[in-house]
Amino acid sequence: MAKKQFKSESKRLLDLMIHSIYTHKEIFIRELISNASDAMDKMYYKALTTDKLDFNKDNYKIKIITNKEDRTFKIIDTGIGMTKEELDKNLGTIAKSGSLNFKEENDAQEGYDIIGQFGVGFYSSFMVADEVMVKSKAYGSEEAYCWTSKGADGYTLDICSKEDVGTEITLTIKENTEDENYDTYLNPYHLKSLVKKYSDFIRYPIIMEIPVSNLKEGSKDEFEESLEEQTVNSMVPIWRKNKNELKDEDYENFYSEKHYGFDKPIKHAHISVEGAIRYNAILFIPEKAPYDYYTKDYEKGLELYSNGVLIMHRAPELLPDHFSFVKGLVDSEDLSLNISREMLQHDRQLKLISKNIEKQIKKELLSLLKNNREAYDKFYESFGRQLKYGIYADYGMNKDLLSDLLLFYSSKDKKLVSLDEYIERMPDDQNFIYYATGESLEKIEKLPQTEQLLDRNYEILYLVDDIDEFAVKVLTNYREKEFRSVTSNDLGIEDLDNKEELEEEIEKNKDLFAKMKTILDDKVFDVRPSKRLKNHPVCFANDGDISIEMEKILNQMPNGQQVKADKVLEINIEHKVFDALKAALKDNEDDFALYTKVLYDQARLIEGLSIDDPVEFADNIWKLMK
Fold it and tell me: Fewest CB within 10 angstroms: 96, 397, 534, 625, which?
């Protein structure tokens, strides 16, 4: 028969289909298997409408055969087959989908859904093949026909010999190039891995001949290789099984098989949703973070399936950034996919699934926090930082969602506590949630600013992560209790006697504090008597939104702005140092300046700040020792 031209599109369009629509050449395997599955589903539909056909699922299978010498890849199904007219119509017209037409002409039956809808998947074969040949014999037909094409130049359609109903597609695989190794599509082991990746949950068995090595008969150490037929797909996805049939071990095995991580998941959720949008999902909360989790190379997202066929290895739209640690998958037939089935349209259904998944993750984490605290602490050690980033990101848009999941170290137990736990054990006279920042728990415990609060038996949250204070600043309050730093200018502790005493000391020694501020120039925002110190002579408080710890963190960032906290130098008026200051101001201004500079440098050291002039500091200490 003479060569026929493609009916509706030109060579340019076919080239676009082959080279632009699909991201990866290996996708052709998914598309051909999906088409084969569709063909067998059509037999199932046919059996529902006629008494002449009994649908025995055991008779329906997909077989893949490769021949390295001939460079052929063959896929055979026992589906409904195609007539001459259907071959000409479906394969001769680009973007004409027989599956979509069949679906529109027949009422959908629960349990079997036609996968292909766009009619372009078949043409992905030309990404890896120089020639494609399709032999097909339709159900109820006496004749078989052969469709052959080498690409955009056209195709031939002839009668041929085929005994069984179904379709056999043969690809003549391209020769290798400098950029592409096409031999991989003739390698049974590689093909098996691709089938597992994309089509593991197709409901019909996918059979391949896999080379295996066995001991030669009568030999103890000599092996021989033979081909063994294997069913290489799982067929029944775990997420479509009844939850009552599954054990934790089954989910853990699935987690491992899918290579979600080398750890065991701390918790899993098996979700089946019916309603405005239907989907199944399995979500895993890992125990440990991947090595690249907190780097720009990490890719978040859930696997996305459509009727058991992998559409996207990672669909980032399904997970918010603050829950990017979650692993798992979603399977839905209701999502709008683009023409290549590789990308999602940003539609209402997608957003609805994403929102539901976010709620489910929050629910699982709260359950873990309340019912298995040890496991939650392990989870938080790995991913608590991400939750705090979630608080800080997007101008605090998610703070209400995430705040009750946060944990901080506590001055009481020296272990992680939630904000709810903190508030529940607050004394009646405590009005604020107090926190202290520092590089480590040990350094925070020694901070002079904590003395008065600890004396009152007020619990202090110890913020040791560089994101902690930024997250707390965004929260501002929790359950109507405001956060307040131990270095805050106002700790909110009402002590009228102490307040009057301070005012008297300020008035009495206003010249002393003014003189100290003059000596220190712009290094401090102010100098004042302290209402928080007990045993230490000096400390810093801060006046403003930027704390000293935030100053350190921001100034360490690459290309970061050199910000400066408004530091207030506080002097303990009950300490002997204050008496020395007053005496020096009266008798020796040089000593007064020396004491002021040393006290300032000591306050910097207490906060973990570098000293402006270490040599001058060393000289000043030497002068004090004379």
Answer: 625
